[in-house]
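R.M. (postdoc): so does anyone remember the format we settled on? I'll just put the structure tokens first.
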């Protein structure tokens, strides 16, 4: 499933991949982080 909804991704899957400019930059298990932590990690990868 591809989505921009981090909360739905965490609830629906077992792993979350973060892509930037068409490249996979991170993969995390959904049980590793809270929703807030996952959002923070996503934003860190999107920061230029």
């Amino acid at each position: 499933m591809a989505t921009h909804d981090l909360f739905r991704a965490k609830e629906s899957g077992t792993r979350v991949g973060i892509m930037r400019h068409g490249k996979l930059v991170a993969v995390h298990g959904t049980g590793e982080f809270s929703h807030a932590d996952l959002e923070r990690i996503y934003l860190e990868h999107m920061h230029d």
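R.M.: ...and that's the designed sequence above, right after the tokens. Also worth knowing: Strands lie at 15-20, 23-29. The chain has one domain: 6-46.
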